[in-house]
Amino acid sequence: MSLDWAEGFQVGKAGWGWGVTMVELKEAWAGRPRLKSYGGWPNVRIVGEQTYGLPVLVVEGRGPAEDRPVLGVHYSLAGPAVGQEKAAVANWGSMMQRMWGQPTETDSWRPLGEGKRSSYVIGRMLWRWPTVEVNFSVFGGRRETEAGAIIGAVMVDWVDELVAGAPYVAELERRQVDLERLWGGRVPLGERFRLSWEMKRWLMLGSEGQPTAALYAAQRALYRRGLLLTPQVGAGRLGDDEVL
């Protein structure tokens, strides 16, 4: 199975379309050797295999919740024989450009000082499309993992939040309607409390400007399912520095 980045991602010859949830991905990867998960978003890590022509040592899938879509896939690239790193990285970069075209951005710099060089990213290629971003990073040295040494990674992010959140917005809207009814019919405003700062609307980290109403709903459905809008009956009576 061969998938374009706009459609989904692969491990070896097996592919999954964007929209697959973390639960579904874990079930699909159940027969593969598992590695320890990291903190942050729910994630699943497995021993990798040759994928997109690259020597993938570890694959990680990550999403905002178990029942939400996978939004990021991380491929750790196996370190070649000592002394062959520079040639391997050059070959990988050329291979990626043949597959995916000219990068949108390219960065290269030297490690900052004489510390642990493997902790630095010394080169990067970024491909950016309307719905997907692919980032190839090169480390300043070999990083040891429980699966072996790696010297680079390909990180893929599905950034089409409108499509990713669409299946979950209806439930968010239903709960919003229920809250409006509750406040409008039976819940008094009660006492107001004044804060020492103005309340600001939650925005997803990295959002530029004010998202449209549709994008804001999709982001809340993906990342903050419990975050509902203040009912109109209350919002109209509260200052920017007041809460109930």
Short précis:
The protein is an alpha+beta fold and 244 residues long.
The pLDDT mean sits at: 87
Return residue spans where pLDDT drops below 50 for at least 5 consecutive residues.
none
DSSP helical segment count: 5
What's the β-strand tally? 12
Assembly state? single chain
Beta-strand level of the residues, as a percent range?
Answer: 25-35%
For the termini, the CA-CA separation is 54 Å
Helix content: 25-40%
Order of helices and strands: EEHEEEEHEEEEHEHHE
Describe this structure in words.
With 244 residues, the protein is α+β, with helices and mostly antiparallel strands. It contains 5 helices and 12 strands. It has helices at 22-28, 85-100, 161-185, 213-223, 232-235; strands spanning 8-11, 14-17, 34-35, 43-47, 56-62, 72-78, 105-108, 121-128, 132-145, 148-158, 193-194, 242-243. The model has no long low-confidence stretch (mean pLDDT 87).
Helix-strand layout with pairing:
Layout: E1 8-11, E2 14-17, H1 22-28, E3 34-35, E4 43-47, E5 56-62, E6 72-78, H2 85-100, E7 105-108, E8 121-128, E9 132-145, E10 148-158, H3 161-185, E11 193-194, H4 213-223, H5 232-235, E12 242-243
Antiparallel strand pairs: 1-2, 3-4, 4-5, 5-6, 6-10, 7-8, 8-9, 9-10, 11-12
Helix pairs in contact: 3-4
